[in-house]
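Re-running the complex after MR caught last week's input typo. The corrected sequence lines follow. Everything else is unchanged.
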Amino acid sequence: MKLTLALDAMGGDHGPVEIIPAALSALEKHDDLRLILVGREDIIGRLLREHGVDVGERLKIHHASEVVEMHELPSLTLRNKKDSSLRVSINLVKDGVADACVSAGNTGALMATARFVLKMLPGIDRPAICATMPGIHGNTHLLDLGANVDSTSEQLFQFAVMGTELTSAVNNVSNPSVALLNIGAEEIKGNDRVKQAAALLANSHLNYVGFVEGNDIYTGKVDVIVCDGFVGNVALKASEGVAEFLNHNARMEFRQSFYGRLAALVSMPILKAIRRNIDPRRYNGASLLGLRGIVLKSHGSADKVSFAHAIDEAIVEVEKNVPQRISARLEKLFAEG
Amino acid sequence: MKLTLALDAMGGDHGPVEIIPAALSALEKHDDLRLILVGREDIIGRLLREHGVDVGERLKIHHASEVVEMHELPSLTLRNKKDSSLRVSINLVKDGVADACVSAGNTGALMATARFVLKMLPGIDRPAICATMPGIHGNTHLLDLGANVDSTSEQLFQFAVMGTELTSAVNNVSNPSVALLNIGAEEIKGNDRVKQAAALLANSHLNYVGFVEGNDIYTGKVDVIVCDGFVGNVALKASEGVAEFLNHNARMEFRQSFYGRLAALVSMPILKAIRRNIDPRRYNGASLLGLRGIVLKSHGSADKVSFAHAIDEAIVEVEKNVPQRISARLEKLFAEG
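Corrected-run output:
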């Protein structure tokens, strides 16, 4: 299946320096892929020449004169930077020139712009950010990761629908299990929104399995975990923090004695394998769900390996037509409900 | 300083089998400590005889006929189990027989009972659960860890006061830095409650340093991090989950080849050191803050090492008179305000 992706070549901490090599490796890997590099033609052109690559049928440059900085306010971006690489990438999706776009740029700006340009699917209030989390017994899709705060129970329900469709499309699971993230230990578990969302889910035809706690994000015991964006963002960042702390601790211990350095040398292949298994680059590419179009958010610090993975994610979502599946499921739920 | 602690000897997954050895090692470590083991006299008496220990001036048994199970509803416990080891332990604090109590029992029941029996400090709406989190550059006190959901901005402010006083008492820091847990990436960062709490904190004499994100729980860059209990609980459990996942992954890699097993053997002292540094048992003992009395919550699965650490925590809080410090700080803030 021939497909075209627009890449925001200027986004992220490294911009085209990492995105262009990622694009070139994606073109090698996927025969039917066409890429449009969106951004400053002079910069992108020069980098392509440095890589000894010409533009052509499968690789084009689409000029955009502006760049959204990582800490700009989304509302100002939306108003003042109409020719940013981020916005033009989304425009190409809207205009049907590209089937999806991938950006490592400012999350807030990407979300606000995607919502403004592409609009929401009918029945969805707000976009949600969804990512794949690795776990002991398999992967879990977690959403929302920070697009929304104070999500209502209806919104949590919509997240469950979107997560279900994304997971069934991408992981080829026919009826993915969905759980609500909640806290233990309390008599009246959780807050009202979670409890009301549980009632909505229990009465739906989704494969709702109940509440899970934070640790279950990494057990893989359910396919989809739904939470408010504030909670999901904190869970994700806390996880990054604890992984970094453990890593720091291990490095210190292996380094601080001669014996430790020897042990590190002996263990190198094993340590590398451990690192490879849990390499966050392999999970890069969060989906902005609920839009009338496919938008993938790459981590801002993505390198070429990482960005290439986000491109792979975008390809699968195009092939499976995730927005259309979400729409169809919502229609079905409304017809049933 | 002579002090007396009441230990809920029946609480937790292991009950007196782990709590009695913890009590005996605490008595050895602290010359001025007296302990009251609260629970079934027959069971506790038999276990003491097995350890070859007699009751006496420093170690007493206080009979309580009932036991609160780990998954009982707090409200039912409160109504129906008035002679539980959990409740009687708290009664001993209320009656001035013990200076503090430690329980590994049902968190919800402990909180509801402590609140009912001891009452809140003036100016504090609800108790908060606070624990020490290890980090790259030092420890951080994080609260609330699940006692409250949908905390108001005033409650978040109260958590900041309580966390400040606990940290300055326990860590001997004169003016601990306090941050609010928030999410990044968004234009209007966080929800209304967090933003309003930020305004309250900025106008106070607390050492408020602004927002941090989830990863900062493990950097140790601030002394106290304040959040709603739903968020804090998920962050804590997600951290446990990611640590367990990384641990599982490392174990698999070291075990699955002959070379891996060899490397594990060579690295054993280093791996043990890593494990020791991050041993959650060293951080066991969460404080229930805001009460007119000192109550420590041990992890339900605590073993003797872990429970002994919670006893150590209780001793420090008694020595520093944490509830009185919180009261004094609140009075001062109100006087200033």
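None of the earlier attempt is carried over here. Chain A has a mean pLDDT of 92. Chain A touches chain B through 65 residues (CB under 8 Å).
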